[in-house]
Amino acid sequence: MKIVLAYSGGLDTTVSIRWLKEKYQADVITVSVDVGQKEDFKKLEERAYIAGSSKHYTIDAKEEFVEKFVKYDIIMNGLYEDVYPLSTALARPLIAEKVVEIAKKEGTEYVAHGSTSKGNDQVRFDLAIKAHMPDAKIITPARSWDVTRETEIKYAKEHGIPIKEESSKYSIDENLWGRSIEGDIIEDPSKEVPEDAFELTRKTSTKNKEKIIITFEKGVPVALNGEKMPLLNLIDNLNKIAGSLGFGRVDHLENRVVGFKSREVYEAPAALCLIYAHKDLEKTVYTPLELRFKKSIDSQWSDLVYQGLWYEPLRETLQKVGVDMNNWVTGEVEVEIGENGLRILGRNSPYSPYSDKIASYNKGWYPTEEMAKGFIEIWGMHSLLARKVRSS
Q1: Can you tell me whether residue 171 is helix, strand or coil?
Q2: Which residue, among 20, 50, 264, has the nearest Cα to 142 in the 3D structure?
Q3: Are 243 and 269 in contact (CB under 8 A)?
């Protein structure tokens, strides 16, 4: 029997190797998918073998992650509950897809992952695996075993299984689009998150703030300060610039798919910069009706991605509409980034309907007195007539 395990190198999946091996008397094949996490994949592979892996695969999927997932998070202004840029949620379908590819290559229908029964990731992984392998037999040690982090650490020590240093305190998930932090004091929403929980947004720059110009073409960022570069490089550079200024932290009570609120902490410097700038450029280009419609579908798209429904047809339809609407979202946005937030300084687009010949109070077009009165009369007629009949 072969079991293919999605292996992150963290506590849950590392102890899962030994548990699966003992429970099922199986060969455990581990798969690590590189989506931009700061990880020594050689050491990760060594850790997997020490824990009992029979074979290990490392797959570089950074470019695919950017082109098939992250790019659309920008176009769709993907912010779950208006704050979380979906970093972990976006990566799960891709990781599941790669794990299934290895399962098919190895000729097995048994696929495992390290999600617990309390988290959202179990939903995301299970549904994505089923989308690519409908007959997959999914095994989840953390759900079956019903253990806590403390018992996992104890199990690892008893069995000589190496675990990462931070496993004793925080649970971390990271990729190029963001970093999530859970565990320890963070679980108390009344307490301030300790500084040692953060990594991407520790202030290291001598500057207090910095101005950056982001260039978009059809909704996709293509340049920083006039320098064109691939989106993967642009995200990496912006993570470093914004993160070094202390920008990019998210702390909120999140409504999980599984039915309860949880305190979630994220670091996403580049993601927040790019989505905020993109939203401003859309507002510059769209008509009022388009803007309100786009906000509506952005929210629906974000909910579907967060809820593990990447393969829901509606998500694909909403995304196609968003991409089509972004045909006009080309231009530049200047932002000022600092520890206290991001401020839009200016924007321009060849497709902006803004006109100073109309809008300017000094030299712009003015309607005549009769035109202004006529517009106001028609505009307010519904409201005034309703008020009149309801007041009588």
Answers
A1: strand
A2: 20
A3: yes
AA letter at 1: M
Q: What is the pTM of this model?
A: 0.94
Q: Are strands 55-60 and 27-34 parallel, antiparallel or unpaired?
A: parallel
Give whole-number Cα distances, 90 to 14, 20, 46, in Å: 23, 27, 27
Catalytic site residues?
12, 92, 121, 171
How far, in whole angstroms, is CA 380 from its chain's centroid? 43
pLDDT mean values, one per 10 residues, the chain (392 residues): 95 91 96 96 95 97 98 98 97 98 98 90 97 97 78 84 68 94 91 94 94 98 98 98 97 92 96 98 98 98 98 98 98 95 97 88 85 95 95 84
Tokens 């490392």: give the residue. Answer: 58
Contact 248, 272 (CB under 8 A): yes
- CA 218 – CA 197 distance, rounded (Å): 36
- CA pseudo-torsion sign 151, 152, 154, 159: positive
